[in-house]
Amino acid sequence: MSTPTQTQSRKQYPFTHSVQITDETGHTREVHVVSEYPLTIKVNDRELVTLMTAGTDPTDLVLGYLHNQGLIENLDEILDIRIDRERQIASVTTRDGQPTGWESKIGRRMVTSGCGEGTIFSCSLEKIYEQRLAPQRIRAAHIYDLLHAVKGYSRIYALAGSVHTCALCRLPDEVLIFVEDVGRHNAADTIGGKMWVRRIQGTDKILYTTGRVTSEIVMKAAIMKIPTLLSRSGVTQMGLEIAQDLNMMIIARAKGKKFQVFSGREYFAPK
């Protein structure tokens, strides 16, 4: 499996901008706000979607989006990715024209509850039911250790807030990949892109997210073959049902010393 050629224009996105605000006491001071940019993905010059992103890892975001949506399943199909920051375009070139089954896949798009206007292609939903996941046994101490570990990686949130975090973790307390972006689905896709290029297997990993666990996030984790989701936020009914169907462990509302195990309870041990 070869790695596609990657090209990025020299212009760099600032991840935050300084602005003047007036606080509750009437004093004026400078604070940071998170940057947000449109990135239009084109495949063989055909426009596919525009994602709103903080621009931290655009190439990995594009790769993860295409893979997690089930649009391109083999990395060898991708010849080249060019990120044009000035024009805010990601141009993907495949080796043999449009990928296999492309027209039928992109014709079945669903609007989701993702931050902003999320979308997912129904071919993703079909693909995840081809497998059953196998979560590891997790103790309460593991959750506390992971929550503590991810705190030390925040850059943008520590400065400006207003972003979601996703992290690929491994027991007992190892953070392998850490991503911040304006939407949780972008952060998850960027994790997926990095895993795809680096050949990282998800079967013994945990996906941490600050966002709520929706059906979209569950499907992305399943495509990455990650059996356990850990979230600071809550879980939706559809997200929970799909997780239960796939035997995925969902641990949500995890803050401080509190958390709730919604699915995969048989894999959890308090001590």
Structure notes:
With 271 residues, the chain is α/β, with parallel strands linked by helices. It is built from eight helices and 17 strands. The strands form five sheets. The chain has a six-stranded mixed beta sheet with strand order 12-11-13-14-15-16. It has a five-stranded mixed beta sheet with strand order 1-6-7-4-5, with helices on one face. Strands 2-3 form a two-stranded antiparallel sheet. Strand 8 (109-111) and strand 9 (119-121) form a beta hairpin. It is globular and about 55 Å long. The N and C termini lie far apart (42 Å).
Question: Brief overview, please?
Answer:
With 271 residues, this protein is of the alpha/beta class. It has helices at 58-68, 102-106, 122-128, 140-151, 156-160, 184-198, 215-223, 237-246; strands at residues 5-8, 16-22, 28-34, 37-43, 46-53, 78-84, 89-94, 109-111, 119-121, 138-139, 164-170, 174-181, 206-209, 228-231, 249-255, 258-263, 268-269.
